[in-house]
Amino acid sequence: MHITVLDGIEGISQLEDLLKLTGEQYGISYTYLKLEKMDIQPCRNCGGCSTKTPGECLFKDDTPEVMKSLVKSNLVIMATPIRFGGFNSILKKALDKCALLGLPFFKVDKGSLYHPGRYGETMFTSLIIGISRSHSEKQKQSFRQLAKQNAAIMRVPYQAVIVEDNDMLQVKDVILSLLREEQYI
Amino acid sequence: MSQTKVLLLDGGMRKNGTSSSLAKTIKRQVENKGQTAEITRLVEYFDGKHMISELKTILNKSDIIGIIAPCYVNTFPYADIWCLEQLICGYQKEWQGKMLFAVAQGGMPDLKVHQSILHVSEHFAEETEMKWAGGLIIGMAPLIDGAPLENCGFIGRRLVKNMDRMVDRLLDFGHIPSALQNKITIDIPKILNYPLAFFLNYIVKSSLKKGGAGDPYHKPYCS
Ligand SMILES: Cc1cc2nc3c(=O)[nH]c(=O)nc-3n(C[C@H](O)[C@H](O)[C@H](O)COP(=O)(O)O)c2cc1C
Q1: Which domain holds residue B51?
Q2: Which of A44, A103, A107 sits opposite B216 (nearest CB)?
Q3: Best CA proximity match to A94, nearest among A67, A130, A126, A127
Q4: A16 has pLDDT over 70
Q5: Is B163 within the bounds of a domain?
Q6: How far does Cα B196 stand from its chain's mean position?
Q7: Average pLDDT of A93-112?
Q8: Are the beta carbons of B78 and A84 separated by less than 8 Å?
Q9: Which residue, A65, A181, B4, B38, shows the most beta carbons closer than 10 Å to its own?
Q10: Which CATH number covers residue B182?
């Protein structure tokens, strides 16, 4: 059982402490990635990851660290403040690189096109946490829709939760109940 | 009467990609109607080629702002979100009441997977007190792949015609009618996604061959 945390929260976040406690208590291994501090270059859509170095970005940055952890994970936790009803740029810099997890080819499932996974299907469960600072219901709705589309494109089961003002107790409850549901604890 | 100034923010990462091709078409259409339009590439602000303060200055001088962006993992690319964040940091009262519209384009034919680009643009407009004018979503963008729309046969002609109507509406400071979206949407029956996947895979395989890559199924990050 391995958890990857893609922490897109700006500045201090209590997510690392929370993971440390949970990990120690239940004997779960995890990789905590404070994305703000990582050098992840934007995807330039150069096509190199398909045509030159399949599955790898031509630009040298911290992306391999993210990918190595994702491919061995059962649960991926992504956290971001809700930004214009979507993700902030810090989380998005890692998410764009997740295109490396897919193959360039197209397949059809239930009538819809998709890219099959490079590392197999249904790699992990994804938990997407949106931090709200009294955001409007409309922004929260847009956020939930984006989370749903993201899980669909990655073809992974998911949960999206919105917490007000960094309420880490709620985040802890959600993580624990997800781990119980998936019978990891 | 003074001319209406349209600012087109090209959100594409490729200099001559599909976002750029769409922006060029809109620019031409605005100019043909006697108004002025300027295109600026968001990634050049991210890369530090220009300062965000310069973007704020051209924004101040524009009446209508359009964002033309590709869909990356269901929403704007990283660099575009970064630019929007930088803009909101120095949010200026001068933007109040300016019109904002968006054109989203992406690979998949299913339009709802690109919807977040319009949502994010709308919420950005709300937060900056701009007037949201709506937008259009274009699927199956690899069929354009940066080519001038005029060279893209039936699909291109249909886009040009309806984008021209969109420009008319915007220059009247009106909301983009949802009927235009229906007119540019190619509703392909799901069953046709099978031959479409076959065709797209043919294009992918040809480019892999050209690129000279090794095993396309390579798993570089397997432990
Ligand atoms: C990192 C990355 C992620 C992408 N994600 C999506 C996606 O989620 N859905 C989609 O339909 N197309 C996706 N695409 C395809 C692009 O939206 C499409 O190729 C677009 O036309 C590129 O625009 P440009 O020519 O302006 O660069 C993605 C492309 C890249 C490089």
Answers
A1: 5-187
A2: A103
A3: A67
A4: yes
A5: yes
A6: 23
A7: 95
A8: no
A9: B4
A10: 3.40.50.360
Q: Which amino acid is at B3?
A: Q
Considering only CA atoms, which residue is closest to atom 4 of ligand 1?
Answer: B72
Q: How many domains does chain B have?
A: 1
B96-112 mean pLDDT: 95
Q: What angle do CA B78, A96, B178 make, to 5 degrees?
A: 70
Option in A64, A139, A150 nearest B221 (CB): A64
pLDDT tens-digit profile of A119-175?
988 789 999 999 999 899 999 999 999 999 999 999 999 999 999 987 889 999 999
Residue B220 belongs to a domain: no
- Give the global pTM: 0.97
**Within 6 Å (CB) of ligand 1, which residues are found?**
A 43, 45, 96, 99, 153; B 12-14, 17-19, 70-74, 105-108, 113, 141-142, 146
pLDDT at B211: 80
pLDDT tens-place string over residues B115-149: 999 999 999 999 999 999 999 999 999 889 999 99
CA distance A76 to A3: 6
In the prediction, which pLDDT does B1 show? 65
Q: How far is CA A101 from the centre of its chain?
A: 12
- Using the structure block, give the residue that is written with the tokens 């193959």: A103
d(CA B165, CA B74): 27
B74 located within any domain: yes
Mean pLDDT confidence for B85-90: 91
CATH architecture of A2-181: 3-Layer(aba) Sandwich (3.40)
Q: Do A105 and B204 touch (CB under 8 A)?
A: yes
